Amino acid sequence: MNKQKLENRDKPIIGIVPLVDLQRESYWMLPGYMKGIELAGGFPVMLPLTSEDEDILQMVRLCDGILFTGGQDVEPQVYGEEKTEACGECCPERDRMEIMLFKELLKDDKPVLGICRGIQLFNACLGGTLYQDLPSQHASQVCHRQFPPYDEPVHEVILQKHTPLQELLEKSVMQVNSYHHQAILTLSDQLETMAVAQDGIVEAVYHPRKCFVWAVQWHPEFFFLKDPDSLKILKAFVSAARNRDVMNETRSK
Predict the structure, then answer these.
(1) How far apart are CA 202 and CA 190, in angstroms?
(2) In CA terms, which of 37, 177, 205, 246 is 20 to 30 Å from 183?
(3) Calpha distance 112→248 (Å, rounded)
(4) Which residues pair with 145 in a beta bridge?
């Protein structure tokens, strides 16, 4: 694909994994996910909840990139553990769909961004493990679960040198919002750390052998209007979705 064709093409289609309300038996979406992708230059589309093989493949063909949202805890069986009382609500339908979808996206090397549950899902899919409950398993003075409003920073993260996130933001420390009670315990050997909290919790990761597989533990969808760094992350994701063909061609030379 030449430069002229890239400049003339439509906005990249970004599929967004749906949020699920089990009590109301409904799928829904926070506007920040949609508005954030729009402001970053993408065309957001909420995906259906399905684990049908052909539907998963059609999502991968249709979308230029896919965003994995926050939400329920990942079922501990995904990473080989029994569920404890401290583990929160799980959604097996989401787990099935997202695991299938993530694996197909990796095969096709399409850009992927994970937020909150997304970073946990990616790690579990790739052989890592999770804290089922940070307060009881990793007591800390760092505020990992803030009260509203969610568009305010509550702790800092340290960006790892020479990682894509540090190179994008050109800084060593950034302030983040935070709302989670689970986190990465053992990092997958396929992922590398891009940021950590002061208590050692992994806050951002990437897959070094894929065109764009990033995930963060904080919530850019609540923060992008006030925080330039959050918007830069969304723009980097959308840019990767727009330019994937050119990126793959460059990497293969």
Answers:
(1) 14
(2) 37
(3) 15
(4) 179
Q: Which pLDDT band, with edges at 50, 70 and 90, does 253 fall under?
A: very low
Q: Which residues contact 4 (CB under 8 A, 6 or more apart)?
A: none
Tell the burial category of 175 from Cβ atoms under 10 Å away from its Cβ (0-12, 13-18, 19+).
Answer: middle
- Residue 146, φ and ψ in degrees, nearest 5: -80, 165
Tell me the two tokens of residue 61: 């063909």
pLDDT tens digit string along 18-70?
A: 999 999 999 999 999 999 999 999 999 999 999 999 999 999 999 999 999 99
Enzyme catalytic residues: 116, 219, 221
pTM over 0.85: yes
User: How far is the first Cα of the chain from the last one, in angstroms, to the nearest whole number?
Assistant: 15
Residue pLDDT, tens place only, 91-124: 999 999 999 999 999 999 999 999 999 999 999 9
Query: Cα–Cα distances in Å, from 144 out to 139, 180, 194, 230, 233?
Result: 10, 6, 18, 17, 20
